[in-house]
Amino acid sequence: MTHVVLESCIRCRYTDCVDVCPVDCFREGPNMLVIDPDECIDCAVCIPECPVEAIKAEDDVPAGQEQFIALNAELSQVWPSITRTKDSLPEAESWKDATDKLQYLER
């Protein structure tokens, strides 16, 4: 099992989770992060760090967001690794409580 970054990360891209990851499994896209399932060791230290609760264990992915399991696997193969915290996106505060954000994902 691995962990998955969900829709609530889109247009926020908080990176608090990155610093605590012991295996550098996060990948950075234009407006969200994903987790490389081949690198994740299922330690769960990233979960409480996310201010928008965007990280879940694969078995705990909410109904309707299952597509993010495959999306994390796909995008982690093309997006670069991120190993240090950066500023969130400028519009993060206004988007952090928004839902139905998949349409805004930038690849």
Describe this structure in words.
With about 110 residues, this protein is of the alpha+beta class. The protein has one domain: 2-Layer Sandwich (Alpha-Beta Plaits), CATH 3.30.70. About 15% of the residues lie in helices and about 10% in strands. The strands form two sheets. Strands 1-4 form a two-stranded antiparallel ribbon. β2 (about 25-30) and β3 form a beta hairpin. The protein is globular, with a radius of gyration of 12 Å. It starts with a strand and ends in a 12-residue tail after the last helix. The model has no long low-confidence stretch (mean pLDDT about 95).
Unreliable spans: none
Question: How many distinct helices?
Answer: 3
CATH class: Alpha Beta
What is the beta-strand fraction? 5-15%
Please give the order of strands in the largest beta sheet: 1-4
Mean pLDDT: 97
Task: Summarize the main sheet.
Answer: 2 strands, antiparallel
Helix content: 10-25%
